[in-house]
Every structure is written in structure tokens, then in C-alpha cells.
Amino acid sequence: MSDKYFLDTNILVYSFDDLQPEKKEISLALIANAMRTGIGLISWQVVQEFLNVSTRKFKTPLLSGDAKIYLEQILEPLCKVYPDLGIYSSALDISSQTGYSFYDALKLAGARQGGCQILYSEDLQAGQQVGGVKIVNPFK
């Protein structure tokens, strides 16, 4: 695992999912590797999505204080891609070319802006290459 990679929100969510232990283990390994090596990253969009899901939709939602700790210890160090007009333009192009929703295209644009060769996601078409970023489902 030496290629730079981008983590989709679902990877972070599964790292809390005790009902799916295999996905949790894989997710925790990807996050730990990203933290240890610096080759894995996320964007501001993933931070927003994760905080929304974890504090509102988890079976036992994270309390605000716990969410802040995770934000400071995990999300902030991993967050390397921030919005600018170029990323929105790129996402529009990707959406038009692939048929992905704007928000999925925004993750691909974020991965590309972050210099990633891989986007780990369960939600997009595994094996597809978009703008130099390969989509990989880590759970298959």
C-alpha cells in the first residue's frame, strides 16, 4: 500500500460499526495506515459528512465532545483537501463525464487534487479509473 489514497466517508463510518466486524477491521487498518504513513487523506467534504452521520445517524450517535475528539485526533490530521473554485469545476466535469452525482464527483475531484492514485469507496464503481484515480472497494 504505497500509492497515495483518499478515504471515502463510508470507510470512516465502518470503523465504528461493530455489526460488520470485517469492514470495521479493514477500515481501521486503512485509517491507521493513513495516520502512520501520511499517504492516506480525506477532504473537507468527508469531514462534514462523517460528523453529520456520526452525530445523527449512528445507532448510538457520538456525543459532541466525542465527535470533537475524533475531529482533532483523526479527521484534522487526515484532511488535506479544501474547497476552491477549481475543485467545483473539476467535479462538474467529472459528473458530466461519468454520470456520478455531483457529491461523488466532488470526492473524485478531491482525490485528484490531493494527488491520490486510489479512492477507497464502497459506493462507486470499483475498478473504474477517473482522471488518474482508480476506484477501489476495499471490502471485496
Describe what you observe in this structure.
The model has no long low-confidence stretch (mean pLDDT 97). The chain has a six-stranded mixed beta sheet. The chain has one domain (5-136): 5'-nuclease (Rossmann fold). The protein is 55% helix and 14% strand. The chain is of the alpha/beta class and 140 residues long.
Question: TL;DR?
Answer:
The protein is α/β, with parallel strands linked by helices and 140 residues long. The chain is 55% helix and 14% strand.
Mean pLDDT: 97
CATH H-level homologous superfamily name: 5'-nuclease
Number of domains: 1
Basic shape = globular
Distance between the termini: 16 Å
Oligomer: single chain
What structural class do the secondary elements suggest?
alpha/beta
Q: In which range does the helix fraction lie?
A: 55-70%
The count of DSSP E runs of length 2 or more, i.e. the number of strands, is 6
- Rounded radius of gyration (Å): 14 Å
CATH class category name? Alpha Beta
Q: The biggest beta sheet, please?
A: 6 strands, mixed
CATH topology: Rossmann fold
Strand content: 5-15%
Total helical elements: 6
Major β-sheet strand ordering: 3-2-1-4-6-5
Helix and strand arrangement:
Layout: E1 5-7, H1 9-14, H2 21-37, E2 40-43, H3 44-56, H4 64-78, E3 79-81, H5 85-98, H6 102-113, E4 118-120, E5 129-130, E6 133-136
Parallel strand pairs: 1-2, 1-4, 2-3, 4-6
Antiparallel strand pairs: 5-6
Helix pairs in contact: 3-4, 5-6
